[in-house]
Design brief:
Elements lengths: L20 E2 L7 H20 L17 E4 L1 E4 L2 E8 L5 E9 L5 E7 L2 E2 L14 E9 L2 E5 L10 E5 L8 E4 L7 E5 L13 E5 L4 E13 L6 E4 L10 E6 L6 E4 L1 E6 L2 E5 L6 E13 L1 E6 L7 H5 L17 E8 L12 E6 L2 E4 L4 E4 L3 H10 L13 H11 L2 E6 L2 E6 L5 E4 L4 H10 L4 E5 L2 E5 L8 E3 L20 E4 L10 E8 L5 E9 L1 H7 L4 E3 L8 H15 L4 E6 L11 E6 L4 E14 L3 E8 L35 E8 L5 E8 L6 H4 L3 E8 L11 E5 L4 E5 L6 E9 L12 E4 L14 E5 L2 E5 L10 E6 L7 E6 L3 E5 L4 E10 L10 E7 L11 E6 L16 E6 L9 E2 L10 E8 L27 E8 L5 E2 L6 E2 L10 E10 L11 E4 L4 E3 L16 E10 L3 E4 L8 E4 L8 E11 L12 E4 L4 E3 L17 E11 L3 E4 L8 E5 ...
Parallel strand pairs: 31-37, 33-35, 73-74, 77-78
Antiparallel strand pairs: 1-38, 2-28, 3-23, 4-5, 5-22, 6-7, 6-23, 8-9, 8-13, 9-12, 10-11, 10-13, 14-20, 15-19, 16-17, 16-20, 18-19, 21-22, 24-25, 26-27, 29-30, 32-36, 33-34, 36-39, 37-38, 38-39, 40-41, 41-44, 42-43, 42-45, 45-46, 47-48, 48-51, 49-50, 49-52, 52-53, 54-55, 55-56, 57-58, 58-59, ...
């Protein structure tokens, strides 16, 4: 009996004889059941999906799977490489991949959930402000109109200027069109904003927008006017100007009226005549904090070639990243742009280019049918050959997916393609599941039939067959009888647990930043009423990116569930032509069916059974869009502020006042106010920063002093600013995240001081002293007194500044003779002058000059108070002088300036001359120096002049004065002293008199809880101030001198909240979620420890041994205290974090090392390749064979075998791929060996081998042995005569094959050798040397020392060989010593030749012993045939044994024989002496006797 249709639960495979063709998406009781099972699977995986979300950027492992992007999606693959750079690592570069293939284009990049705007170079940019915008209301939606606004869906905007407040604020844009866009507003009030048009600013937290201050300076003309041109376009209302004269405490300032002429040109009026001016303004400067450069993933792209030079050490030219769509992203750190760290980076992109069989083109598409074809053939996907895919199915489905269709959502109609897809698929995904996700987007089905992949989209095809009773056939059994089984099986109805009458879920919404958001639930109210309950299916659609499509697919699901009829029919061969997914009309009267449309979802043929068809009912109405869907749920975004945007502070104003302290000191109080802040992000946890700076000393770095107030403050009171000085003020807000808003428009303000004038100068007088004029006056009686200022001229207003300082006397160096009017006025801390300046007429003549013969003494010092010396030394800053040895030293004065703020300075120059020198001229007057020149007997003169910072003289040098005078009175010290106290209410001041020491800056005597430092605590902080002033090092401060206590800060706030996300992990053996913790636990913030009964849960990820499935749960701990309790119900649902994957395929085996004897008993005394082959084979197979093996195919390069016999012989070789070779060691560098290198080892040293050591080693020595310390011992025990212990060779001029040096000056050997031949040298070229020695010791030394074994006959101490003509076996040379000294017997088997020039005996013999055989051709240069006379000089007494005379016959025939000298005595025949005489060969004897 055949198997029931419902028994098949597995997916169908290729159909052949006896197998089913089954649609893979219909595996059980109908479509509804399939969708429900899939929904349940999705629900189980939902928690884990977030951890592998394509919207989350994470670091990728090198072997991470690739992702396939189809259609239009927003996604990211991950970070493939990252590095930091910059002086402080402030730049971060990320290489982020987005798809594992070539894509069509990147459209938009997102940082977190904010879309970016990029310029042509990839830098993030902020568009200009839009003005003149209008808006209308549509319920809770505002529709703004601005032609060509260019703002995209998802962008955050700041809207302002509308009269209705709900239209203003920070919003997210949706439904963006060419000239309009929408945003959600807070309420559905009535009316549209009238009147004033609004403005729109696109918010981009990834550009740094700053209001930067600029300034320029110059000089007003004689009318107090000037014209200036700004260098940049200012922010409206930020241009201001002021005039100033003098520097430091002597400076004066005042306002200047500035008006715009045209463009950047401005006019200044109303300033002081000829005074300097400063104009300041602000500009908006935008700095991008990110840059993105993209690569689409082509095979030809080369990221490294393009960028390696820009990122040395991080990219190389070979880093092409071919086939990967990626972006190189540079981030510049800014606490404002990235308050929460590196952003999550994603991109909206057009994915893969897909092949379209309709026209053989390849292009980007959103067509699901073409996506299915692309994935099926993708190299990293299913990899189905395209010939195994039914092309016509793809064409039919693609055409229907492109069909233009109108969908109705509420009151709105949308015209879209019938189906479209945008999806991301991992290469690690199950191909069947991935194909199902694509099919889901077009309500499609797929399956295998006849070895061919078939598919269809959600439509009813034209009927291709008509089935009636004539098709039905009875199955025949093996005996030929008809089977008793049914020929038609019918199933109808759906079990209650599988019913579907309502569908809800999520889809991707591009209008909401491509988030997966719920689409409105699709329900059949009639069906719900009939079923008596709602049966909802949760269906998430990650590949669907429009609500209309999502609701359409949901409605198809419901309608398919309401058509549950399924049939299995036994048919004759009429059904043989039917194919999978064919639609036919079924007419079976007995079952009440007439032309009922059915779809083939299974097909099988067997000879005995015929054709078995599986059919499912289908109608066109299942796939036709219904008239009305539920429509959009607006889900208002609200007016939550952007965490990256902080609004600028407005309404900044500055006012100031001054308080006169009991001691007369003036304490300024500057109040900065601004409009109230409305942002909760600033009001709660934020703060306000106020910055200020002297207007004529703006820091070049832009780092101004700051004053901080809480976020809800609307004013700040800043004490102690300089009175009568211009300051610039600016304000900004900082939210709770630390993101700083832009600076407000800066405000120029003149700080007010005491408006009352100090007392007039009294008792103004002068005295002529040698070389100077001393001007004196009475001390000021005003409490607020800072200095006395002197001027010279016709009036105070027109006078030239002369001096300013605290005291009662001024000493002026000798001026030119003449009468001068000197004016004097006191100055207070607010810059107020005496109401009526005092004047004095001063007359100067020659009487001012010192008396003749008096000397001026000058001394110098570094600090002006200690270590005075008479000679100027580099580093000296101060000088003093006196007249005569008995004279008093004058006050120290500074002679070398120090670095100060940019501005003019007073330059002192010096010169020695016998008389008054001429007034210097020019920037660097000749003959004058910056330091006093060395003493030369002439007086020292000085002149002063004003110079610009560049060293240019302003005006003229003063008349030179001779440096001399009496010591002045001590100056006055002054300081403002502060004291602090915490108290809930305003406290009283100190009640005791205190003492302030100027040199140590210490205050003693405070009481009533007042301190000189800010005390800790939570009460209000109060401050008081007093002025200490005295000519001594200390001053007393009475209790009445202190100012009234001022509140410096408010009470401390309460403790903030600690918060932490607590993670728990558990491993189990199954995917089933374990139980959550069942008891209340305690979390400690300082230690991050969770205490209590955790059960099997742990805070750390447990070891893999705990199970293949890793589960996770989280809870949030929040408390203002040190700990927080977490109840059991606070833990999140358990999620499956990870699970073990399946094992991978075995990798290639590595190299093996075997021991033939030790492992398998293969004994060898010489190497055997066959035994080495067998050893490795045994290791691979587990055998223990000892026979040889010729096969080498099982070997791998690097396999190593040690052969041996276990006692006397062992050798190791490795397999090179073609032969067994001895291993060698190549050392390119240094080798450090602790131990022994032994065995058959070749050491091939590239470079040089250096052996240093002093290890004891016993060596044979002269027939015995000796223990020596050696650095290198080399030798061989091999029998071949050709083997040597040490072999050295060189081929370069002056090189040495082996060189030994012993630096001991008493004894030792440079090279020592022992053996058949101790040392062998071989000369291979002309002028070469086989062995060369050099004795260098101061005592007895040997150039070459050789010793033969004294016990073996024939041993050679030194053996040298020259086998070719012209060669020299041994060459010995000494220019002053002895070249060769032989001790012992010497044997020569060849000729001995001396090339010594005539004049020196070739050799000297000390022995007088007779030489038995001396064979010489010449004796004293004569031959034996014609020797020199014998005994010619001193007659010899010797005798001749034989005396032979060869005579030549004369003309008469007589032979004359002559001889001289005596010959040895011959044989004596008698008592006579006989001498032999030979004539012509005949010997005669003649008697001889003594005369």
């Amino acid at each position: 009996m055949s198997k029931s249709f419902w028994g098949y639960a597995g997916a169908a495979v290729a159909a052949y004889f006896g197998q089913w063709q089954i649609a893979a998406s219909l595996l059980a009781q109908g479509v509804g059941a399939e969708r429900q099972r899939k929904a349940r699977n999705q629900a189980r995986e939902a928690d884990n999906a977030g951890l592998q979300d394509c919207m989350v950027m994470a670091d990728l492992q090198p072997d991470a799977p690739r992702t396939l992007v189809l259609g239009r999606v927003r996604a990211v693959e991950g970070v493939r490489r990252r590095w930091a750079s910059g002086t402080h690592n402030e730049n971060l570069t990320l290489i982020v991949s987005f798809a594992g293939h070539e894509i069509d284009a990147f459209e938009t990049f997102w940082f977190n959930d904010l879309p970016l705007r990029l310029d042509v170079d990839g830098y993030v940019e902020t568009p200009a402000q839009l003005t003149g915008c209008s808006a209308v209301r549509s319920g809770t939606t505002a529709i703004l109109t601005k032609t060509g606004h260019g703002i995209a869906d998802g962008e955050r905007v700041l809207i302002a200027g509308f009269s209705l407040p709900e239209f203003n604020g920070t919003f997210t844009v949706f439904n963006s069109a060419a000239d309009t866009f929408s945003y959600a507003i807070a309420n559905a009030g009535s009316g549209d904003p009238p009147g004033t048009p609004g403005t729109v600013n696109v918010l981009s937290p990834y550009t740094l927008t700053e209001n930067v201050t600029h300034y320029l300076t110059g000089t007003l003309d004689g009318s107090g006017e000037a014209s200036v041109t700004l260098t940049s376009t200012p922010i409206g209302g930020t241009v201001s100007a002021m005039w100033s004269t003098g520097t430091g405490d002597a400076s004066e300032q005042g306002p200047v009226t500035i008006t715009q002429d045209a463009g950047l040109d401005y006019d200044l009026t109303g300033g002081r005549l000829d005074a300097g001016y400063q104009v300041s303004w602000q500009t908006v400067e935008i700095t991008p904090m990110a840059r993105i450069r993209t690569y689409l993933g082509t095979d030809a792209q080369s990221v490294g070639t393009d960028l390696a030079a820009e990122y040395p050490g991080h990219l190389t030219a070979t880093d092409d990243f071919a086939g990967i769509a990626l972006a190189v992203i540079d981030l510049t750190y800014s606490e404002d742009a990235y308050p929460q760290g590196i952003p999550n980076i994603t991109a909206t992109m057009r994915g893969a280019k897909c092949f379209d069989p309709r026209d053989d083109s390849t292009a980007w598409t959103e067509n699901p049918a073409l996506h299915a074809l692309h994935y099926a053939t993708w190299d990293h996907g299913w990899r189905v050959p395209i010939g195994e895919i039914r092309e016509q199915d793809v064409i039919d489905a693609a055409n229907f997916c492109d069909t233009s269709t109108t969908f109705t959502l509420g009151a709105d109609d949308y015209t879209l393609e019938r189906y479209r897809c945008g999806i991301v698929i991992s290469s690690a995904a199950d191909p069947r599941s991935a194909m199902g996700d694509i099919m889901e987007t077009m309500a499609g089905r797929w399956g295998w039939a006849g070895g061919t992949l078939r598919m269809r989209c959600g439509r009813m095809a034209t009927p291709a067959f008509a089935l009636d009773e004539t098709w039905v056939a009875q199955q025949v059994g093996q005996g030929g009888q008809a089977s008793a089984g049914p020929v038609v099986r019918i199933s109808n109805g759906v079990p209650r647990e599988e019913r579907v009458n309502s569908v809800a879920g999520t889809c991707i919404d591009p209008a909401q930043r491509y988030q997966a958001l719920p689409y409105p639930t699709v329900s059949d109210d009639v069906l719900i009423a009939a079923d008596g309950a709602e049966y909802r299916l949760e269906a998430d659609l990650p590949g669907v990116n429009h609500i209309a499509h999502a609701q359409h697919l949901a409605s198809i699901t419901i309608r398919e569930g309401q058509a549950p009829l399924r049939m299995e029919i036994m048919s004759n061969l009429s059904a043989y032509r039917c194919e999978l997914f064919d639609v036919g009309e079924v007419t079976l009267a007995r079952y009440g069916m007439t032309d009922k449309t059915q779809e083939v979802i299974g097909w099988r043929w067997r000879p005995a059974e015929g054709v078995q068809l599986r059919l499912a009912e289908i109608t066109d109405e299942m796939f036709t869009p219904v008239d009305t869907l539920n429509g959009r749920d607006p889900a208002p975004n609200g007016n939550l502020p952007s965490p990256w945007y902080v609004a600028p502070v407005t309404g900044v104003d500055v006012d100031s006042d001054a308080e006169i302290q009991p001691d007369g000191a003036v304490l300024t109080l500057t109040v900065v106010t601004w409009d109230a802040i409305v942002s909760q992000a600033v009001l709660t946890g934020g703060r306000i920063e106020v910055q200020f700076t002297r207007a004529n000393a703006i820091p070049a770095t832009g780092d101004w002093p700051s004053w901080i107030e809480q976020g809800g403050a609307t004013s700040a009171t800043i004490p102690g600013l300089k009175a009568q000085a211009f300051y610039l003020f600016r304000v900004r807000a900082i939210n709770a995240l630390g993101v700083r808003g832009p600076w407000s428009a800066q405000v120029l303000h003149l700080v007010d001081g005491d408006t009352g004038a100090p007392d007039n100068v009294a008792a103004l007088a002068y005295a002529i002293k040698p070389g100077q004029v001393a001007v004196t006056w009475a001390a000021s009686t005003a409490l607020d007194y800072v200095a006395t200022e002197l001027r010279v001229g016709a009036s105070w207003a027109a006078g030239t500044f002369l001096w300013r300082g605290a005291g009662t006397e001024y000493q002026h160096p000798r001026p030119d003779n003449g009468t001068y009017t000197v004016w004097a006025a006191h100055v207070d801390s607010s810059g107020n002058y005496s109401a009526t300046p005092a004047s004095l007429s001063v007359t100067v003549d020659d009487s001012i000059d010192p008396a003749s013969g008096e000397s001026v003494y000058v001394e110098y010092s570094i600090d002006g108070s200690t270590s005075w010396h008479s000679t100027f030394t580099t580093g000296d800053l101060w000088a003093r002088w006196k007249i005569g040895l008995a004279g008093a030293w004058g006050d120290p004065f500074k002679i070398v300036g120090e670095d100060g703020s940019a501005g003019d300075y007073i330059d002192f120059i010096f010169k020695r001359a016998a008389s008054l020198p001429s007034t210097p001229t020019g920037d660097t007057p000749a003959g004058w120096s910056d330091a006093p020149p060395a003493a030369n007997g002439n007086p020292l003169w000085a002149s002063t002049g004003t110079k610009t910072p560049a060293g240019t003289l302003v005006g003229v040098w003063s008349t030179p004065v001779q440096i001399e005078g009496d010591a002045g009175t001590p100056g006055q010290n002054s300081a403002i002293v502060y004291a602090y106290r915490r108290n809930a209410t305003a406290p009283g001041g100190p009640s005791l008199t205190c003492t302030y020491t100027f040199s140590t800056k210490t205050l003693t005597g405070l009481n009533n809880s007042w301190t000189t430092t800010v005390p800790a605590g939570t009460d209000t902080l109060w401050v008081i101030a007093a002025t200490a002033a005295d000519t001594d090092d200390s001053d007393t401060i009475a209790s009445t001198d202190w100012s009234t206590p001022q509140q410096l800060s408010g009470n401390d706030g309460g403790d903030g909240l600690n918060s932490a996300t607590v993670w728990l992990f558990q491993r189990t053996g199954s995917a089933t979620a374990p139980s959550l913790p069942g008891s209340t636990l305690t979390y400690t913030f300082s230690t991050s420890v969770l205490s209590g009964t955790l059960g099997s849960w742990t805070q750390a990820v447990p070891a893999p041994a705990g199970g293949a499935y890793l589960h996770v749960t989280t809870a949030t701990a929040v408390s203002s205290g040190a700990t927080d309790t977490i109840a059991s119900g606070e833990w999140a649902a358990v999620r499956l974090l990870s699970q073990d994957g399946t094992g991978g395929t075995d990798g290639l085996r590595g190299s093996l090392k075997g021991y033939a004897y030790g492992q398998y008993g293969i004994s060898d005394s010489s190497w055997s390749d066959g035994h080495a082959n067998r050893t490795i084979n045994n290791m691979l197979t587990g055998a223990t064979l000892t026979s040889t093996l010729a096969t080498t195919s099982h070997l791998r390069i690097g396999d190593t075998v040690i052969e041996g016999n276990g006692t006397t012989w062992s050798q190791e070789k490795f397999w090179s791929g073609s032969a067994w070779l001895l291993p060698g060691t190549v050392i390119d560098g240094n080798l450090l060996v602790t131990g022994t290198i032994s065995g058959g080892v070749n050491i091939n040293i590239t470079g040089y081998g250096k052996f240093e050591g002093s290890a004891a080693y016993t060596v044979p020595y002269y027939g015995g042995s000796i223990s020596v310390d050696v650095a290198l011992a080399a030798g061989t025990a091999a029998t071949p005569a050709s083997e040597v212990g040490v072999y050295g060779r060189t081929i370069v001029s002056s090189g040495a094959g082996v060189m030994g040096i012993n630096t001991n000056t008493s004894s030792g050997d440079g090279v020592y050798g022992e053996g058949d031949t101790g040392v062998t040298g071989y000369a291979n070229s002309s002028n070469a040397t086989g062995v060369r020695g050099y004795g260098n010791a101061s005592a007895l030394s040997y150039a070459v020392r050789a010793s033969a074994n004294n016990t073996v006959s024939g041993s050679r101490g030194l053996w040298a060989d020259a086998s070719a003509a012209g060669q020299i076996a041994a060459y010995l040379e000494s220019t002053s010593g002895t070249a060769l000294q032989v001790v012992g017997t010497s044997t020569f088997s060849k000729q001995i030749t001396s090339t010594l020039a005539t004049g020196t005996a070739p050799f000297a013999v000390s022995s007088t012993t007779e030489n038995a055989n001396l064979n010489a051709a010449l004796l004293k240069g004569k031959t034996w045939a014609a020797p020199d006379p014998i005994g010619a000089t001193t007659p010899s007494t010797g005798r001749f044994t034989t005396l032979r005379v060869d005579a030549t016959p004369t003309a008469s025939g007589a032979a004359v024989a002559t001889f001289s000298g005596l010959l040895p005595t011959g044989s004596a025949a008698s008592t006579n002496s006989w001498a032999p005489i030979n004539f012509n060969g005949t010997q005669y004897w003649v008697p001889v006797w003594v005369d």
